[in-house]
Structure formats: structure tokens, C-alpha cells
Write a structure and sequence with these properties.
Layout lengths: L1 H56 L3 H26 L3 H21 L1 H16 L7 E4 L2 E8 L3 E6 L4 E5 H6 L2 E3 L5 E10 L5 H11 L13 E7 L4 E10 L3 H21 L21 H8 L26 H9 L1
Antiparallel strand pairs: 1-2, 1-5, 2-3, 3-4, 6-8, 7-8
Length: about 325
Amino acid sequence: MTEINEAFQLLWRKLEIWLKQIVLMLPNLFLALLVLVLTFVAARILRRTSDKLLIRFTHSSALNNLVGTTVYVTVLTLGIFFTLSILKLDKTVTTLLAGAGIIGLALGFAFQDIAANFISGVIIAFRKPFVVGDVIETNEHFGTIERINLRTVDIRRQTGELVKVPNRKVFESALTNFSHYGIRRIDLKVRVSYAEDLERVQQVVKGAMVDIPNMISGKEVEVVYEEFGESSINFLVRYWISYKRQTDFVNAKSYAIMKIKKAFDEQKIEIPFPIRTLNFGVKGGKDLSIELKEAFPKLTLSTDDQEPEKEKLALPHDGTNGEDKEKAAEE
């Protein structure tokens, strides 16, 4: 019984000490609670403010949400640490900071590729070398930007495939944005016969280049002769188009080919076929007739210096030849 009384007395003394400490800490508790509430309100205000500011610099909703969430969590974390220090829990704060540092270091090594793609995505979002809908070429991928994520850039190829290129590769590699200036030049290769008048060909081509879709009328069509080809004179037709998507380029090129071909047909201008000369008497090789005789022994090739064999007439059974029989029939 005495032991039970001593235990109750010990418990009561502990509770008394705790109550006294709570009473002494009441001002700090109220202050800590006030700091926590103010921190929560400040975090929400800063998050909304960051969202409004980021809209002016980037159109990436994923980046805006990420930055807003980062600001919100950072402000709340600082408020919690400050609240713990008000409650004189400095050792707890130190322990939490040390643990967070170790965890952050471990995660940094484990997810360094993800971190590199993430940082590259943030830089791309702020620099804006391209936007959704642009036609670009990077890392041997050509297509239209469909989405810009924090880890990848989604490129839709002209054949329909969706390619996800890591942001780090996009950031480190050369990139061509065909939609940046809104215009693009088409270099159309054409061949013409050596027999044609080149000045006339030039006039016919320029006259045919009308009513081409998206072609910029203010820029002159250029006809530039390039080289003397094996069977033709080769030249380029250069003209500029308004460019927003790849279909603009394809249609403008297709219509130009049809217009030039129609004009050439009307003006009797020849587009020559490639000419190839086959020489079977190559030094060190065999003559074609010899190879054919070896391959087909029964095949007889007639040449100019060989006389054709005379046809032999079969003798009839009565001993007369065919000519006597024919004369008798005529008489």
C-alpha cells in the first residue's frame, strides 16, 4: 500500500511540474500558434503572387504549379522551424535540419538525371526557345511541339509518332526552330535538257510561280543555275512562304512542282531522263558474246563475217530431188 501511495505521489509531482511548465510556456505557445497561422496565410499569399508573376514570363502551367508549390512548402517549413525555436525546441530543429540535409544528399545522388532534366526544363521554360505548336528539329527528331513538361519535351513527328525528348538533351544539343520567324525559304531542285534556252527556261519558271499557297508575293522568285549534270543542267527555284506548320511547306512545294511541270509541257521544254552508257568491253574483263557462249553452249550467235548455213532439202523416197518434182508439178 505504501508503494502505491509513493507511486501516486511521484506521478502527481510530475504532473505538477508539467502544469507549471505549461503555465510558464503559455505566452510562448500563443506566440508559436500565432506565428504558425501567419506563416500559413503568408504561404498562400506568396503562392498566388508567384502564379500571377510567372504567367508573364512563361506559359508552362506545370512550371507555374511547381514554383508555386515550392514557395508554399518553403515558407511553411521555415515557419515550422521558427515555431519550434520559440518553444525552445532548438535541439529538435537541429536534428531535423541534419536529417533533411542527409536525405537531400542521398536523393541528389540517386536522382541526378531527373534533377538535370528538371533544371533544364526550368531554364527552357524561362528562356522560351520554342512554344507549343512550333516546328523544331533537335537530336535527329523533326516535328511539332505538342507539350513542354518539366522532364521532357513532347514532339509529334510528321508521320504521327510522339517522341519524348529529355530536357537535358534538348538544352545541350543544337536546335532548329522553323517557326520562329514565321517565314521559310523553299529550294526546289529542277533539271532541264542541254538543248533548251536557259533564259527562256528562267522566264517560263518565273511565270509559272503564281497562285502558290502561302507564298510571299513581296519576295522575288529566284532561278539559280547550279551545275552541268551528267544528262541535264540543274538549277534551283527559290521562293519564300509564310510558315506556321509543316503542311504549309509540303503544299507550297507540291503546287510549285505541278505548276512548273505544266508550264514545261505547254512550252515543250524537256526534262531529260538520266542517260547511262553500258560498256561491256572493260579492260581485264570478258567479251559479252564469249560469256554468253560459255553460259549457253547450244546458242549460236550470227556475226557479219559468218555466212548463214544454207537450208538443206530432204530427198523424197522416189530418188528424185525436190527441184525436179516442183518442175514436174508446174508442167
